[in-house]
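ligand=flavin-adenine dinucleotide
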Amino acid sequence: MKPAPFKYLAPETVEDALNLLSQHGDDAKLLAGGQSLIPTMNFRLAEPAVIIDLNRVSELNYIRETRRSGGLSIGAMTRQRQVERSDLVAQKAPLLYETMPFIAHPQIRNRGTVGGSIAHADPAAEFPAVFTALNAKFRLQSQSGNRWVSIDEFYLGMFATALTADEMLVEIELPASPKRSGFAFKEVARRHGDYAIVGVATAVTLDRKGRCEDVNLVFLSVGDGPVTAKQAAVTLTGETPTSQLIEAAAEAAAQQDIDPGDDLHATAAYRRHLANTLAKQTLTLAFERAQNS
Ligand code: FAD
């Protein structure tokens, strides 16, 4: 099928884009890489009257060190492929760097943007889980100004976010990683590049004595959005991360922290099994990396 007719607008600045968004509100959709929006329009699952194409808004395309915090700032229109190839991302956000090749296929990453994936809020997408594990915050802008929201405030459910009709996601900010931190990402998909059946992004920090100071284990594809394993964190925090404790934390994550459903791709029981295995693997790797950092 082809999309329903729409009016096409192509601003060149954030200011013009926000002006158009405030004029058209709910009737308009922002177009980023088009890798999710265009298929939904082709299937007539979305029929926006107006498309505001952000592809000429070059001021939203950047990856740079955040001066005040030493973290990383990424513009919403940065292509996924740029993130995958960035030395700065490799250095400042190794978890994000390690995850990039799992997102779809190179052709899709060439067009798909970081902001588009975040705003789309697909529970099977990798970015929301990785950014949750890294405590990212998002800058949303409208004609009335900017506001920063934490990732927990941003995701409201499946394909639902805190963005209002006149707002645009403009920037993602990642804090600098504390010393003695380690990270790991793993997922299982039927074929490489498919959406994952289950995935997990893991970030850990050790204290000076080698005890677990902080742990963020965040799953994708097991709920309505990124799911943080809270009980697993309770099991590990303050303790020396032995293999028995990691096994107990992975079991808690799979049995208590997530509540996956059955669908065409996998049963809930299989998803719990994968979650347990992936949690164990990523925790082990992340703690090893933290010890060697
Ligand atoms: P678009 O499709 O242009 O937009 C998506 C939505 O976000 C729209 O509603 C749009 O209005 C809104 N939007 C875009 N930019 C902004 C902004 N700055 N502010 C506010 N709203 C905005 N993704 C994965 O994570 N993992 C996968 O394994 C994966 N596999 C894929 C396989 C295939 C075959 C395809 C076609 C896609 C796949 N994707 C996957 C999705 C891909 O990563 C998309 O690029 C991404 O979800 C959307 O990014 P986009 O830039 O293309 O956004």
